[in-house]
Amino acid sequence: MIALPGDTSASYQLRPPGGGDDWRARADGATLRLVPPRVSHVVPMRRDAEYDPRADQAALSAVVHFEDGSSSETVVILTAVQLEHWYAQIGRLLASRDAVRQRR
Question: Region annotation Disordered: residue ranges (predicted)?
Answer without folding.
Answer: 1-23
